[in-house]
Amino acid sequence: MALIDYQSLFEKEKGASDYIAITKWFSIIFIENWIKTNLSEKNKMRWIILFIDEIYNHKCKIFILGESKMEDLFIWDDIGDSEETFMLERCLSRLMEIMSD
Question: How many CA atoms lie within 13 A of 27 on its CB side?
Fold first, then answer.
């Protein structure tokens, strides 16, 4: 099990290898202090999507600790092209699946 702060995961540049290492070492991951993420923050959104993809691929369980409901984790503003919209929708779908019973 791991308890990881949102800022340490997504406020500093990380690569796929960082997220793969986390998901190989821990099968249950708690993320605390989740900050509502503005979808216009492209780099941060890509890191979140990459991390969720790795959690999904390695069949880890994730628990997001915070005051927001699932549908309020992101601030939905103009996110740009349809590919980014698709990636985010897939990410949210995976989150819902990972966090379900």
Answer: 1
Q: What is the pLDDT of residues 41-98, one digit of tens each?
A: 878 888 888 999 999 999 999 888 877 666 677 776 665 666 777 888 888 888 888 8
CA dist 99 and 101 (Å) reads 7
**Angle at the Cα of 48 from the Cα atoms of 80 and 100, rounded to 5 degrees:** 110
**pTM score above 0.85:** no
Order across the sheet with 28-32: list the strands: 2-5, 28-32, 61-65
